[in-house]
Write a structure and sequence with these properties.
By secondary structure, the chain is of the alpha+beta class. The chain has a domain at 58-193: Immunoglobulin-like (Sandwich), CATH 2.60.40. The chain is 30% helix and 47% strand. The chain contains three helices and six strands, in the order H-H-E-E-H-E-E-E-E. The protein has a six-stranded antiparallel β-sheet with strand order 2-1-4-3-5-6. A hairpin with an 8-residue loop joins strand 5 and strand 6 (183-193). Helix 2 (26-54) packs across helix 3 (87-94). The model is unreliable at 1-14 (pLDDT under 50).
Length: 196
């Protein structure tokens, strides 16, 4: 009987040891819950912040573009494209690339350089004028396409009529330091927002 008792004692000790190892420590459970709570809060913040900033899950986007060829005294008229995008698309993709984007088509510094300034104002449906600032572009002489993206950050929010006034100024310095006369022109674009 002593042998049986000894055997049972070892068996019970072994089971008790396995039970102790299988039960997770209370601190490990609370740390896991804390980590999950932090992740959940981060996800909610990422999802909710763009909608809160925009005031809606849909965002109006007005895309205006025009061409210029420095060294000449002309620019093309502004073309307008209106879109509706999600708040997440606007804040995480479109906005991060900037309000004004310029692409060169055939630009070279062989003949000289140019300094371009775009000065923009936006008039909203309340007839308030919003200063959109100045954008400076430097580089060679040639053709460029300028694209302006207007949305909630620039004040395009409420239904009604808007007007963009853009003053385009180009200073050209030819090779050898000869300065051409400054070319300046004002471009306008009118658009109407509805459904917001």
């Amino acid at each position: 009987m002593g042998i049986v008792t000894k055997s049972n004692t070892q068996c019970f000790s072994g089971v008790r040891f396995e039970e102790d190892m299988a039960a997770p420590a209370p601190k490990a459970k609370s740390r896991k819950k804390l980590a999950l709570a932090i992740i959940a809060i981060a996800v909610i913040a990422i999802v909710a912040t763009p909608v809160a900033l925009a005031g809606s899950y849909r965002v109006p986007l007005e895309i205006m573009s025009f061409n210029d060829t420095t060294g000449t005294t002309t620019t093309s008229n502004i073309t307008l494209t209106s879109q509706v995008v999600t708040a997440w698309e606007y804040y995480f993709s479109i906005r991060t690339q900037g309000m004004v984007r310029t692409s060169d088509s055939s630009v070279s510094s062989n003949g000289g350089t140019t300094n371009i300034t775009l000065t923009m104002t936006l008039t909203n449906p309340s007839n308030q004028t919003i200063d959109l600032g100045r954008t400076n572009i430097s580089g060679g002489i040639g053709s460029r396409t300028h694209t302006i993206y207007l949305s909630v950050d620039q004040g395009v929010r409420a239904n009604g009529s808007y007007r963009l006034d853009l003053v385009f100024t180009a200073n050209v310095v030819l090779l050898g330091g000869v300065v051409e006369t400054t070319f300046s022109t004002t471009l306008h674009s009118n658009f109407t927002l509805s459904g917001f």
